[in-house]
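lol forgot to send this yesterday, sorry. struct tokens for the thing we talked abt
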């Protein structure tokens, strides 16, 4: 109650914040008349001067009014588009590192130019992140004209660029690209060997367009760079063949909410019989269990034309939030291979993780982060908790006049689709344009087929038919047009109304199903009613829709039964609509928990990742790596001797073990006699002497040698560690049965694995460095010449003395054991007829 009174008297927090910006907006407006008189050449000159002021210590806030005024006038001259005052407000919100919630059609792309130019004055680079390559390319070219007018450079990062092209794009003042490209470039940079190969600069300021899509929807899937493992793919095909023999409920059960499958006792017995196994739960058969469960999910939970499509002999993922294809992305944990086996295409090798990061942890690396979208308020809590981002709702330039009709709810899907088609036919006859929103390719093609039978001309926009996307969306507001689209039409491109359409009621949005996220529904609705245009929207639902079936309470069915619904008769009831919204809230909460759990686990990995990537950067950037190598040496010796000295009365066996360990690590056998075990300083001195000899033998290559072994061993151990952490994560949930917190157990065991990995990495570096022998090219050539001369000599002697015992050949020159290119049991290349190991190979 007190909160309501405060809000009534002082206004909401959002209103108070907007009120604080009024003096800033007034200051920007006061400069407009002066700038109207300036020539075009004034603008890049003044921007360069402001940049110098910032470099000399001026704050960005102090130059904000003039910079925004310069950008506004540049927009008027370049595009004939003048920023509205509400767009200036949006620009201020973005500059302050907040999320600007702006309705569709309010010009978010133009709003971004204001904080982009202001923050580009620092010279540290600004990233504008979009949801797809098309929008990144479009916005970079479009807004790049304005930035060029102001003397700033623009780059764009899209799929397929070379490292040189990427480096140039990141070096520009402003860089456009997708979240995937920025994230993967970060991971790839942390797999490079030389600093000259790095493409990205340190993350400074980012504006995320459609911030809810990228920071919320995409955050359920981490970015992973993987390489093919050596595991065979034959088991996928074998298991796939037995799945049709398993019956639901009898042999397996499905949990569609969790998208999981499990075998019944009868199912276990059936699988053991079909696969000829004695015990499916025997540890050696663990891979069979995993493959069976993934194959069940592939056949009974994941659907073609919904979760994926088959294109050009490949299984391609369909993004559930945007409806777009995601080429190059694969389901993890063997699921993608199970789908390939199901669809009869080539089963690719399983992949091993080489590098990974969540979007949450990637974007939290930026010094300042902001975002804009039409729908953020429903996830304001998550933005605050995960990213520390506050959501500010920006008023519209023109009042919103769109009519949002209540949902029409039917008992069955066929009844619903018949009603949808009938509605489309009536609106088409009237001439009012219709945008039909679907949540899957399957539904869009079903409705398209029904409209073809009804002879209603229409366009289909989904992941299978996306080549003409911009043109189809641009025409969707023309008189009489019917457009069927998956969620991909909900982002990035405004639908402009054609002539005479306003009088007919504007664009009508027809939703065929509620998405599990209210934001996706609001985005679809937001395609109509832009900039004060008329428009309308209505959703058609059925009790058989996935959302209603899985998450809708029985209460909805009970209400509809009491109302005595007849076949084909819809119900429009506020209680039912409220129950549906509650179902969506439950799903959103469930998905938030998934993202939060993913982040909790990745936070453990993130701490480790930061240590490894920091060490990698030091190894790449530092000219002199000797201090780091000396530090590693001290750590190894301290760890060894601390444990050794703890044993007050070592026996001969422990002395021998310590001596063997020292020899294995530092190759000391030819340097000193052991046992007895030498003291720390003696061992340290012997290892340093070996490194000094290495430095003397190859002074110009020594730094490269250290860098190579450091990075090579670091990458190899990190890759093994990622695999170990994956295995730990897979089984950590079982700790809950022992009344232990899986997350705390994962943190504790993960830290132990990490410490072990660091020790192993340091030790392996010295095993390699102390055994390395430098051989100059001329020495090797001389050795090869002597060896070849010796072989010819031996061959001649074997011919001369065959069958004779009166004179023995001369003693052979010693050869290196690792040199031969023939097997030890192969015939000797000298021509003696003996096996190599008993002839030249015995020397």
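and heres what i got for the seq, position by position
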């Amino acid at each position: 109650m007190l909160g309501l009174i405060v809000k009534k008297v002082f206004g909401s927090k959002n209103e108070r914040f907007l009120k604080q910006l009024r003096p800033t907006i007034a200051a920007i407006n006061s400069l407009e008349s002066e700038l109207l008189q300036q020539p075009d050449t004034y603008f890049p000159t003044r921007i360069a001067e402001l940049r110098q002021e910032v470099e000399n210590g001026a704050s960005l806030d102090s130059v904000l009014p003039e910079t925004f005024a310069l950008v506004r006038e540049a927009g008027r001259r370049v595009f004939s588009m003048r920023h509205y005052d509400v767009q200036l407000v949006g620009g201020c919100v973005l500059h302050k590192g907040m999320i600007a919630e702006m309705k569709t059609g309010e010009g978010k792309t133009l709003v971004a130019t204001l904080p982009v130019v202001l923050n580009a004055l620092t010279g540290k680079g600004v990233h504008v992140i979009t949801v797809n390559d098309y929008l990144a390319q479009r916005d970079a070219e479009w807004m790049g004209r304005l930035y060029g007018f102001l003397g700033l450079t623009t780059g764009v990062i899209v799929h397929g660029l070379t490292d040189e092209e990427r480096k140039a794009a990141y070096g520009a003042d402003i860089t456009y690209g997708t979240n995937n490209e920025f994230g993967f470039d970060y991971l790839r940079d942390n797999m490079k060997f030389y600093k000259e190969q790095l493409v990205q600069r340190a993350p400074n300021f980012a504006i995320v367009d459609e911030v809810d899509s990228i920071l919320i929807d995409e955050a359920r899937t981490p970015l992973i760079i993987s390489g093919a493992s050596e595991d065979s793919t034959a088991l996928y095909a074998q298991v796939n063949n037995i799945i049709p023999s398993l019956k639901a409920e009898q042999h397996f059960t499905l949990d569609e909410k969790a998208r999981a499958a499990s075998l019944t006792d009868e199912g276990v017995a059936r699988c053991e019989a079909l696969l000829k196994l004695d015990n499916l739960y025997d540890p050696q058969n663990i891979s069979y269990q995993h493959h069976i469960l993934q194959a069940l999910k592939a056949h009974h939970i994941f659907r073609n034309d919904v979760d994926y499509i088959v294109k050009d002999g490949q299984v391609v993922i369909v993004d559930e939030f945007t409806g777009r294809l995601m080429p190059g992305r694969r389901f993890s944990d063997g699921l993608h291979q199970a789908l390939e086996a199901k669809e009869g295409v080539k089963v690719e090798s399983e992949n091993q993780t080489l590098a990974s990061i969540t979007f949450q942890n990637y974007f939290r690396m930026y010094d300042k982060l902001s975002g804009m979208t039409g729908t953020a308020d429903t996830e304001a809590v998550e933005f605050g908790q995960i990213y520390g981002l506050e959501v500010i709702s920006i008023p519209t330039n023109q009042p919103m006049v769109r009519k949002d009709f209540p949902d029409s709810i039917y008992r069955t899907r066929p009844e619903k689709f018949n009603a949808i088609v009938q509605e489309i036919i009536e609106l088409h006859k009237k001439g009012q344009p219709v945008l039909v929103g679907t949540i899957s390719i399957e539904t869009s093609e079903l409705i398209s087929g029904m409209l073809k039978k009804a002879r209603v001309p229409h366009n289909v926009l989904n992941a299978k038919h996306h080549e003409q996307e911009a043109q189809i969306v641009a025409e969707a507001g023309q008189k009489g047009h019917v457009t069927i689209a998956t969620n991909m039409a909900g982002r990035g491109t405004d639908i402009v109304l054609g002539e005479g359409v306003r009088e007919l009621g504007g664009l009508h949005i027809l939703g065929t199903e509620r998405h599990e996220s209210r934001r996706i529904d609001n985005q679809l609705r937001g395609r109509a009613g832009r900039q004060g245009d008329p428009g309308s929207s209505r959703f058609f639902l059925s009790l058989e829709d996935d959302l209603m079936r899985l998450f809708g309470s029985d209460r909805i069915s009970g209400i509809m039964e009491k109302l005595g619904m007849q076949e084909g008769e819809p119900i429009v009831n506020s209680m039912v609509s409220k129950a549906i919204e509650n179902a969506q809230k439950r799903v959103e909460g469930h998905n938030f928990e998934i993202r939060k759990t993913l982040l909790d686990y990745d936070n453990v990995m993130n701490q480790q990742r930061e240590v490894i990537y920091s060490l990698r950067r030091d190894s790449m950037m530092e000219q002199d790596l000797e201090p780091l190598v000396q530090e590693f040496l001290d750590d190894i010796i301290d760890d060894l001797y601390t444990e050794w000295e703890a044993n007050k009365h070592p026996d001969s066996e422990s002395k021998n073990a310590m001596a063997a360990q020292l020899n294995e690590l530092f190759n000391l056998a030819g340097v000193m006699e052991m046992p007895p075990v030498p003291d720390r300083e003696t061992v340290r001195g012997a290892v340093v002497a070996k490194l000094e000899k290495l430095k003397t033998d190859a002074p110009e290559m020594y730094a490269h040698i250290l860098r190579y072994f450091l990075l090579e061993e670091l990458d190899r151990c990190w890759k093994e560690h990622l695999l170990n952490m994956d295995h730990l994560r897979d089984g950590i949930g079982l700790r809950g049965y022992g009344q232990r917190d899986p997350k705390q157990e994962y943190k504790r065991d993960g830290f132990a694995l990490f410490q072990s990995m660091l020790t192993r990495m340091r030790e392996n570096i010295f095993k390699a460095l102390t055994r390395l022998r430098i051989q100059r090219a001329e020495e090797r050539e001389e050795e090869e010449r002597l060896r070849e001369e010796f072989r010819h000599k031996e061959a001649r002697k074997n011919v001369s003395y065959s069958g004779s015992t009166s004179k023995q050949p001369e003693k052979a020159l010693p050869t290196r054991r690792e040199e031969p290119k023939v097997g030890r049991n192969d015939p000797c290349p000298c021509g003696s007829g003996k096996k190599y190991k008993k002839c030249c190979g015995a020397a």
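The domain at 607-769 is CATH 1.10.3060.10 (Helical scaffold and wing domains of SecA). anyway ping me if u want another try
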